[in-house]
Amino acid sequence: MNSKIFFSVILSAFMLFIFTSCQNRNQANNPRNDMNQNDNNLHENNPNANLNQPVVIWDFNTNYTYDQKDQLKDDFNNAMDQLDDRMSKFEDKVDSASQVTKDWYNDRIKQFKAKKDSLNNKIDKIDDAKQADWDKFQADLKTGWKELQNSWNDIREHVVSSNKY
């Protein structure tokens, strides 16, 4: 009886060891694990940021006062410049993708650029914003930016997951 229990314990430990080893190997070999790194590695200002990672260029957590609208405009324009740079680098990768991926990307990027142009038009009107309407102006801009950033990440994710470039 003791030998059966001993054998069962040894067999269970061995199976647990094998299962754990397989899990660790799968995680180590998964090329998408880099997408689960902490937010510091996802920030565009990080020189180690990878084009395959989600873009967190600007979190727009600051509530700018009406008197800080020039700062908001500068921050917004800097974020747009970073996004443009990110897009340019990514488009180099898309150039080597399959035709299906290129077609999909080109359709989506047209829609994306229309959203981006609309948001740029909004920031261009910042000087016309009245103090009484400032909170709404800022909230609309913040919503638009988050939608734009999410849209870019959706496009990027699709191309990355296609593994075609």
Mean pLDDT: 74
In terms of quaternary structure, what is this? single chain
Shape, per Cα inertia axes: flat
Summing up helix and strand content along with how strands pair, one would put the structural category as mainly alpha
- The share of residues in helices is 55-70%
Overall number of strands: 0
Number of helical elements: 5
Let me know the largest β-sheet: none
Distance between the termini: 60 Å
How much of the polypeptide forms β-strand, as a percent range?
A: under 5%
Low-confidence stretches: 23-49
Order of SSEs: HHHHH
Which value, in Å, is the CA radius of gyration?
24 Å
Structure description:
There is one protein chain. This protein is mainly alpha-helical and 165 residues long. 68% of the residues lie in helices and 0% in strands. It has five helices and no strands. It has helices at residues 2-29, 39-42, 69-94, 99-124, 134-162. It is flat. Mean pLDDT is 74; it is low at 23-49.
Describe the structure in brief.
The chain has 165 residues and is mostly helical. Helix content is 68%, strand content 0%.
Q: Which characteristics define this entry?
A:
0% strand, 165 residues, single chain
List the helices and strands and how they pair.
Elements: H1 2-29, H2 39-42, H3 69-94, H4 99-124, H5 134-162
Helix pairs in contact: 4-5
